[in-house]
Amino acid sequence: MSHVDQLRNLIPVNSLTDDNFNELAASTSVQTIPADTVLFREGDTDRQSVYLLEGEVRLTSARTELARTLQGGSDDARYALAQLKPRQDTGTTTKESVIARLDSDLLDRLLTWDQVSGIEVVEMDGDEDTDWMLTVLRSPTFEKLPAMNANEMFARMELVPVKAQQVIIRQGDPGDYYYLIRDGKCAVSQKDAAGKVGIVNQLGAGDQFGEEALLSDAPRNATIMMTTDGVLMRLAKQDFLQLLKAPLIDWVEQKEAEALLAQGAGLLDVRTNEEFGRGAIRSAQNVPLYMIRKVVSTLQPDRKYVVYCQTGSRSAIAAFMLNQRGFDTYALKGGLSALNKAPEAGS
Question: Which CATH class is domain 251-338?
Answer without folding.
Answer: alpha beta
